[in-house]
Specification:
heterodimer, A: 5-stranded parallel beta sheet, 3-stranded antiparallel beta sheet, B: 322 residues, 4-stranded parallel beta sheet, 39% helix, globular, disordered C terminus
Chain lengths: 182, 322
């Protein structure tokens, strides 16, 4: 089975403008960013959280702390995935108790990653609120999970793959829809 | 993937890359020890058979706690338990436990090679928690993790190991591990516990009979416990051992000023180590205990969390390729 690029969903410029809009929405709906903490879900949630924190910090004149979360230990499919995954560090340099947390990830799909991320956060304390921000919502939920802030909603088929490519990790900046072909 | 494991039986056959991988995997679990809620569900529904055919307190509690924090259940076989006293064979005991379908065995036994013997006869991963005078691989790994954290790296460390090297599986695992990272390994102790053959264990191993000479330039010092239970020949009187081999503040000053002190425990204050050294800022004894939990959680994750298809494990087995 091969995977081919079907079409581009977002250019670098569109990613930048989408993140700017999301940062504005977050500030507007948060009512003061004082207790806000952003948590990037490994891997591509991390640069997205960092960029959003910079934009929110610039407009609200508050430094927004950013943590990173590795969900490997909280996955529900460990006994079926191959090869066996590698655990990485979660680095959350602020107490989560009573915080207003915003989880940031690149793509919202089944909702299972978000479920795992929330379990991970609960091990660290009791946040006042957890909201979710994603760059792309592609549908096909398997759990009752929805995002509070969505960059782009796109209809997809089961065989399609949304690839978010970011300069910090992939040395290119765009979002593409790939498809599996026989 | 060649760096993945089926069993953890010894340090000797592992590559540098495999060791580095396991130490790196322990890092998230070190952080986890500081979480307010120390309970994962990662190994929920898995059972670990803790099979201690030889007395153990700290290693057994460490494995039991690691399993509990990963969400696994444990079966506990202890040396004092009756089936061993009644004369049941190792293999019969293991088969009995295996019939209860554990997902892994942790084995401690007084015979060298016991863990490997069991690994050839069961279908699940086996972790060696100490076999006779052979190896104690999780201790070697937790010591390496402690050294790496304090020094920043393992490469090129100068370690002096003091005491009964001959009977020490902890020393053997450490020697094999650190030699792979180019360490200079100095062994010191009474002549009867320091046979020449020890220099053949790994490259850069030397014997220095006088402690003052052995400590010169060392940046890691490991004091070992005198293991009365493994010694059958007439041994050195305690006061003579203290006089010549006890790690005292004066002797510690002969090593590098930033040298760290390790002890696998249980530590006998006033015998192999002076209390002032044991409680000094150079002592890493309690860090070793915390790191032991992290290493054991990482190893349980590596061996038990993945696919349960035995065929897959055979393909990935470190031993099949070594």
């Amino acid at each position: 089975m091969r995977v081919i690029e079907k079409r581009q969903l977002m250019s670098a410029d569109e990613i930048r403008r989408t993140l700017d809009r999301l940062a504005h929405e977050i500030v507007e709906k948060t009512g003061g960013a004082k207790d806000l903490g952003l948590i990037g879900v490994r891997r591509r949630g991390i640069p997205l959280a960092q960029r959003l924190a910079n934009a929110i910090g610039a407009s609200s004149k508050v430094e927004i702390p950013v943590g990173t979360l590795d969900i490997t230990l909280y996955r529900d499919d460990l006994s079926t995935v191959a090869p066996q995954p590698v655990v990485q560090s979660s680095e959350i340099p602020f107490p989560v108790d009573d915080r207003d947390l915003l989880l940031v990830d690149d793509v919202l799909y089944t909702g299972r990653t978000v479920r795992a991320a929330m379990n991970g956060l609960f091990d660290l304390g009791r946040p006042r609120r957890i909201r979710l921000c994603v760059l792309v919502d592609r549908g096909h939920r398997e759990l009752p999970v929805e995002a509070s802030f969505i960059g782009r909603t796109v209809e997809t088929t089961d065989t399609e793959i949304i690839e978010v490519r970011l300069n910090e990790i992939d040395r290119e900046e765009r979002v593409v829809i790939m498809d599996r072909v026989d | 993937m060649s760096h993945r494991f089926h069993h953890l039986l010894a340090i000797e056959p592992l590559s540098r890359e495999q060791i580095t991988f396991l130490l790196d995997q322990a890092k998230p679990f070190q952080e986890f020890q500081r979480y307010p809620l120390k309970k994962l569900a990662t190994l929920r529904g898995k059972t670990i058979a803790l099979s201690f055919f030889e007395n153990s307190t700290r290693t057994r509690i460490s494995f039991a706690t690691a399993a509990a924090r990963m969400g696994a259940d444990t079966m506990n076989l202890q040396a004092e338990s009756s089936s061993l006293k009644k004369g049941e064979s190792l293999l019969d005991t293991i088969h009995t436990l295996e019939a209860m379908k554990p997902d892994a065995f942790v084995i401690r036994h007084s015979s060298s090679g016991a863990a490997e013997f069991v690994s050839r006869r069961v279908d699940v991963p086996v972790i060696n928690a100490g076999d006779g005078t052979h190896e104690h691989p999780t201790q070697g790994l937790l010591d390496a993790l402690t050294i790496r954290d304090r020094r920043g790296q393992l490469d090129g460390c100068k370690i002096t190991i003091i005491g009964d090297i001959l009977h020490s599986r902890v020393a053997r695992s450490n020697i094999h591990l650190l030699a792979k990272f180019g360490a200079l390994i100095t062994l010191c102790g009474p002549a009867m516990w320091l046979p020449r053959e020890l220099e053949c264990l790994a490259p850069n191993v030397r014997r220095v009979p006088v402690l003052e000479d052995a400590l010169d330039g060392a940046d890691v010092i490991m004091a070992l416990r005198i293991q009365q239970e493994r010694i059958h020949e007439p041994s050195l009187p305690a006061d003579e051992y203290i006089l010549r081999y006890q790690l005292t503040p004066a002797r510690l000053r002969l090593a590098r000023p930033d040298a760290i002190v390790l002890h696998p425990g249980p530590m006998i204050r006033g015998l192999e180590i002076d209390p002032a050294v044991a409680d000094s800022s150079q002592s890493c004894v309690l860090e070793q205990v915390t790191n032991g939990l992290a290493i054991r959680m990482a190893i349980l994750f590596e061996l038990v969390a993945g696919s349960s298809d035995p065929q897959e494990h055979v393909k990935d087995s470190a031993h099949a390729s070594d």
